[in-house]
Amino acid sequence: MEKVRVRFAPSPTGPLHLGGVRTALYDYLFAKNQGGEFVLRIEDTDTARYVEGAEDYIEEALEWCGIIADESPKKGGKFAPYRQSERRDIYDRYTEEILKTDYAYIAFDTAEELDAIRAEFEAKGDVFSYDNKTRNLLRNSLALSEEEVQKLLAEKTPYVVRFKMPIDRTLNLVDIIRGNSSVNTNTLDDKVLVKNDGMPTYHFANIIDDHEMEISHVIRGEEWLPSLGLHTLLYEAMGWEAPQFAHLSLILKPDVSTLINKENIDSITKSFTEEFVTKNSQFSFDESAAIIKSFFSEVKSPRFKSMLNENDKDNEITASVKQFLKKGLSGKLSKRDGDKFGFPVFPLDFKDLSTGNISKGYRENGYLPEAFINMVALLGWSPADDKEILTLDEMAKEFDLNKVHKAGARFSKEKSEWFNHQYIQFKSDEELLQILKNSDLHLNIEDEKLLKIIHLMKERATFPKDIYENGKFFFEAPTSYDEKASKKAWNEETSAILAELASNLEGAEFNAENLKQVMHDFVENKGLGIGKVMMPLRLALVGELKGPDVPDILELIGREESISRINNAINNFK
Ligand code: GLU
Predict the structure, then answer these.
(1) Alpha helix locations (H) across 475-558?
(2) Residue 40 has pLDDT above 80, yes or no
(3) Which has the least CB within 10 A, 236, 402, 410, 566?
(4) Which H or E element spans position 237?
(5) Quick one: pLDDT at residue 1?
(6) How many angstroms is it from 448 CA to the middle of ligand 1?
(7) Which CATH class is domain 431-572?
């Protein structure tokens, strides 16, 4: 059996998004599952779309995820180079070869000429396509005489190489995930294989490299499914065996009802309205915002979807808003969704050097790579027994392309946070200590104390920074007391009770176990309900009625600070 070799072949046209990470991950998991090799190839033949920094970004992102290539531009390998821009001589060789077959021809039509023809077609209500019906009317080696072609070549007239799509053939396409389908070649056009600067287009370079690099399986996004007919024929033209194909479904936008709440409805309304009025400048911002907000306030109601679909008595603006929301809330997950709803769609922050814009990354938002990659893996694949928590190695053991879903996978912000919470729990206190120390929180506290705080707070943390944010009272005294909590916890007797407790604390040994005993005895001796002491004490220490056990808090902040916080509260409630 041939060796399994799978490649991830991104174009450096921007940062890798969630969909790209998932493709890379499935490529990797499949290769590892089969005992094969995983190759990273950079497809940078489209110089017009090249984005500075994108290649480095892709490599860094994959590394952060733990998706390590066996061969790559940086690592090299037996099929190097792995950057298409460095493989020009290989493509030149195959360009010559395909031109000797009946599957390709050269075409001299300039962009202006093609624009003019396109306009002519449009004027007649037709759509122009360079294909087996039109190619004989255009300026190419099939339509022109041999002398004319030779003359144009002698004059150094620029030309492209086009694929000669066979007439009326039905192609059977095989896809591991989608099953079989067919396409008639009359619906396909004569794609450019080599541009007039001699550089191959994606289609040609891609199949040459997959062949040269001995790729056995092509796993990629479904946006490439329409190219499968052409690719199949290109393999036929070159006389090569085609790899097996698997096209992954889309990652879909999250369910809005899980994203909009009282706290964020105004800011989400604002960003939707900004986009709406940019596209519909006839409507005012305020009026549009009011309508959009009225829809968003119904987002949790079961009627929400049908509300957007009813359109009996709508005025013009409401009808437009409904159209806009219907489109904007369904379909493919986009970068803008991340911006609007406040979740990252990229693995790492990406700074666009031309605009200075920063797109948010999972890494910088406090996600652990293990959690991120686990979440991504389950967007479209279900392991046996519907297991949810798997390490990369476990995923590789279980991965099965036959179990990858045909339908689109809905992204969920809640679920990604759930994964992170789980993985925080798997971390040891020491590991979390290192993460917090390397974060931008700049905590000024001894390791020993921080470790204890981590131990007490990690259970409720979704992100490492939550340990600090939910436990700020460990670092500083409260500056105010929650109103509702104060009403509940403090009455006229409280000051006297806490003052007496404070004096008991003066002489007590300050460890949680002993403090628990001290308070127990105190409550017992005074014949008080436990809540009468614990609640106001917690309020004095924390500022609200939350946090871990009170004796643990007392031990950690220490005698002096504890007593000072009790006195502060007594003064405050005088
Ligand atoms: N360069 C293509 C992309 O960025 C690769 C598609 C493929 O995997 O064939 O999507």
Answers:
(1) 483-489, 494-506, 512-526, 530-542, 550-557
(2) yes
(3) 402
(4) helix 228-238
(5) 60
(6) 50
(7) mainly alpha
Q: What are the structural domain ranges in the chain?
A: 88-248, 256-330, 369-428, 431-572
Distance of CA 394 to the CA centre of its chain: 22
Amino acid identity, position 10: P
Tell me, what DSSP letter sits at residue 410?
E
Would the CB of 9 count as within 6 Å of ligand 1?
yes
CA atoms within 13 A on the CB side of 281: 1
Class of the domain covering 369-428: mainly alpha
527: left (phi over 0), alpha (psi -120 to 50) or beta: left
Residue type, 35: G
Cβ distance 308 to 300 under 8 Å? no
Q: Distance (Å, rounded) from C-alpha 311 to C-alpha 478?
A: 53
Q: Is the pTM above the cut of 0.90?
A: yes
- The pLDDT assigned to 385 comes to 86
Among 11, 213, 234, the mutation site with the greatest number of ligand 1 atoms within 8 A of its Cβ is 11
Asked if omega into 478 is within 30° of 0 (cis), the reply is no
Q: Any residues with CB less than 8 A from the CB of 161 and at least 6 apart, and which?
A: 95, 98, 99, 104, 105, 106, 107, 192, 193, 194, 204
**Per-residue 3-state assignment (H helix, E strand, C coil) for 559-573:** HHHHHHHHHHHHHHC
Residue 164 Cβ < 6 Å to ligand 1: no
Query: Residue 310 belongs to what H/E stretch?
Result: none
Q: Which of 560, 441, 547 is nearest to 508 (CA)?
A: 560
Q: How many residues are given for the chain?
A: 574
Amino acid at 59: E
- Beta-bridged to residue 122, according to DSSP, are none
- Cα–Cα distance, 516 to 513 (Å, whole number): 5
β-strands 244-248, 217-221 pairing? parallel
Residue with tokens 């009317």: 137
Ligand 1 centroid, distance to 345 Cα (angstroms): 19
What is the average pLDDT across 510-525? 95
Q: Is 44 in the pocket of ligand 1 (CB under 6 A)?
A: no
Question: Does 571 have pLDDT greater than 90?
Answer: yes
As a whole number, mean pLDDT of residues 157-173 equals: 98
Strand (E) or helix (H) holding 287: helix 285-296
In angstroms, the CA 382 to CA 388 distance is 8
Instruction: Place domain 88-248 in its CATH homologous superfamily.
Output: Glutamyl-tRNA Synthetase; Domain 3 (3.90.800.10)
Distance 561 CA to ligand 1 centre (A): 60
350: nearest Cα among 20, 7, 9 = 20
* Cross-strand pairs, 217: 6, 244
Cis before 548? omega within 30: no
Angle at which helix 494-506 crosses helix 512-526, to 10 degrees, equals: 130
